[in-house]
Hints:
It is found in: Cytoplasm. (6S)-5-formyl-5,6,7,8-tetrahydrofolate binds at residues 29, 100, 140, 496. By secondary structure, the protein is an alpha/beta fold. Among the domains are: 3-126, Probable tRNA modification gtpase trme, domain 1 (Gyrase A, domain 2, 2-Layer Sandwich), CATH 3.30.1360.120; 232-421, P-loop containing nucleotide triphosphate hydrolases (Rossmann fold). Helix content is 43%, strand content 16%. The strands form 2 sheets. A 7-stranded mixed sheet has the order 8-9-7-10-11-13-12, sandwiched between helices. A 6-stranded mixed sheet has the order 3-4-5-2-1-6. The longest helix is centred in the middle third of the chain and has 25 residues, at 171-195. The model is unreliable at 413-420 (pLDDT under 50). Bound molecules: guanosine-5'-triphosphate (GTP), potassium ion and magnesium ion. Residues 244-250, 263-265, 267-270, 292, 327, 358-359, 361-362, 382-384 line the site of guanosine-5'-triphosphate.
Amino acid sequence: MTDAARNTIYALASALPTRSGGAGVAVIRLSGPRACDALVFLTEPGAFARGGSARDPALPEPRRPVLRPFLDPANGEVIDRGLAMRFAAPRSYTGEDVVEFHLHGGRAVIDAALAAIARLPFCRLAEPGEFTRRAFEHGKLDLTAAEGVADLVGAETAAQRRQALRQVDGALGRLYEAWRASLLRALAHLEADIDFPDEDLPQGVAEAVRPELAGLRSAIAGHLADRRGERLRDGVSIAIVGPPNAGKSSLLNLIAQRDAAIVSTVAGTTRDVIDVHLDLDGYPVTIADTAGLRRSHDPIEQEGVRRARARAETADLRLLVVPAADDDGQALDWPALAHDAIAALSTWSPDTDLVIVNKADLLGAADPGPEGHHGIASMRLSARTGAGVPELLGRLGATVATLLGDAPGANDPAPLAASDNMLAPPPLTRARHREALADCLAALDRALAASADGVAPAELVAEDVRLAARALGRITGRVGVEDLLDVIFRDFCIGK
Ligand SMILES: Nc1nc2c(ncn2[C@@H]2O[C@H](COP(=O)(O)OP(=O)(O)OP(=O)(O)O)[C@@H](O)[C@H]2O)c(=O)[nH]1
Ligand SMILES: [K+]
Ligand SMILES: [Mg+2]
């Protein structure tokens, strides 16, 4: 049988069993023209040898699970007993005939079941993302919703889950399609002018579509300027920076609740950037510990300081840690240390960043120090005793919520607390969308410039409006995406 004929695909849809054991249930999914034949062959003794088919009486009603033995079609051995269910095309996830088996989740069961399916000559193992790709190809969802499926499976926090689910439901796709529809309307006007140039129009058509194009331009520019969706998908990035031995790694370990970074009395211990991913009040954050900022002759430490600076510059939020005392308990001039560190980096933001005066356990109550540093608020804590850390986390949580466009506390388990945010237009979530929107914006700018003088030929404006619409169509998958599909679905894992 040729590979093209093996177009009924199968895969384990649930997680692989780990070394410590399997889950209670494993789900194996098949999709394609002969999924129902597979169901019969895998559950009806002797059917494979007989050459039975989907018309076999053994086929259950669609969407009704039935308890069946799961057989090896080669020799009839019962591998497991579980639920079998089918979905008839087009009313299925992929739009094709789909069959699901719910078996026991142990490794031996899964291995034997997959090997049994592989013996059916018309079945092959699915590629990563192939189920969702087929769903896209059958018009079940647009590309943004397909990407939402991958994000939903990968979501680690409540806010990420909400954003991904909204995208699966098509909110982002609808926004882009509405923009595209308004471009296509403008294009239709322009084309009418091209086709019937002698009609006496009160005003140049190119000029007449300007308000619509200008409105769209500002909506897209606003959408591009909003980084909340990407921050939520990728995690808000927090950089811990400061002079050597300030206790940066100690603070990271305390927040992470594990020994992620080496702590020692030696100044210059940390060299690489150490990232820790955390769920902060339901929001995803990545906290980076970095090398202490100082001049050094050691090329490795120099590279560490370069990386620390680079991370601090690109982070969404900076925590500048300064020590209030040295290891012998001698008070240090920490305001001066803070001043130097602030002067050494260019990207400080009083809205988000904090100066953390660490080793407060060594600091007499007598030394409150200045409250603000170049407008950046400060707080004291002790990475040794943990004093002040809950306050820090509370403040970080509120700042992260604000960065993501939520009211502080919106993620608290209150009824539909985030509903306000749900009514706002969905934000941009991916670099792929950003690139296409930037192309769209550039084409719109050209169209607006060409139509500004009022005498531009409609053809000229129409061409750029067409390009702008095309750029939007590529986001949802309406136009010219064949070349993109392999890249997009490669990011999925097998079984999705
Ligand atoms: N007393 C006291 N000591 C602390 C505190 N935080 C850190 N230390 C000590 O300060 C020393 C340096 O801590 P680190 O966490 O390695 O400091 P760092 O800023 O990561 O240092 P580098 O990576 O070398 O830049 C260690 O001996 C810690 O135990 C604190 O709150 N109080
Ligand atoms: K150190
Ligand atoms: Mg360190």
